[in-house]
Design goal:
The protein is mostly helical and 183 residues long. The protein has a single domain, classed as de novo design (two linked rop proteins), CATH 1.20.1440. It is built from 7 helices and no strands. The termini are far apart.
Length: 183
């Protein structure tokens, strides 16, 4: 066997590996972007449900103005957030405000039985589940991508083309604590 063919075969294999690794990095980076987009879609959907929820609760709980204002303020912050970190912070603020809103709703039996309120609560719960799923998917995608960027020999290719590890979403300590509702 001609040594030239062996060298050409080895070079071809190296080039093929480079192409496959590069394409895998591009694909996984795109999947991460898509996962972030899905989270944005669900956060926007949730933000669009909030005005109806506030209006429904406001009709029953007029003296709970502070809670309603906090929900509105948190929604506005989420709608204005531009970076991922701003969206995460605004989402956390909105989640806390909604917990307070639902705690207030517990004091109003007529509200809890209101069909509109129940439908909005169901839609919001469904959206929360979708946000949680999208975050879980994003976490998995980032983990797979980061493994390729950090493991040898993929790390050499990643560094050569400017691919860096991405930051993983992590829950803050206060999100991990049990919610305490007091009246």
């Amino acid at each position: 066997m001609d040594p030239l063919w062996l060298v050409l075969g080895a070079v071809a294999l190296v080039i093929l590996y480079l192409i496959l690794t590069y394409n895998a990095l591009v694909g996984e980076s795109a999947q991460i972007d898509e996962a972030i987009g899905q989270i944005d879609v669900q956060l926007k959907r949730r933000a669009e449900l909030i005005p109806n929820l506030v209006e429904t609760v406001g009709g029953y709980a007029k003296h709970e103005k502070g809670v309603l204002e906090e929900v509105t303020k948190a929604r506005t912050a989420l709608m204005k957030a531009s970076s991922t970190s701003q969206k995460v912070a605004a989402d956390d603020m909105l989640t806390g405000a909604l917990k307070s809103l639902f705690a207030v709703a517990e004091n109003y039996p007529q509200l809890k039985a209101n069909e509109n309120f129940l439908q909005l609560q169901k839609e919001l719960s469904d959206t929360e589940d979708k946000v949680a799923y999208a975050r879980q998917y994003l976490t998995s995608q980032i983990m797979e991508y980061n493994l390729k960027v950090r493991q040898f020999p993929g790390s050499i290719i990643a560094n050569a083309f400017g691919y860096k590890a991405k930051q993983q979403f992590t829950a803050r300590e206060e999100e991990k604590k049990a919610v305490k509702v007091t009246f």
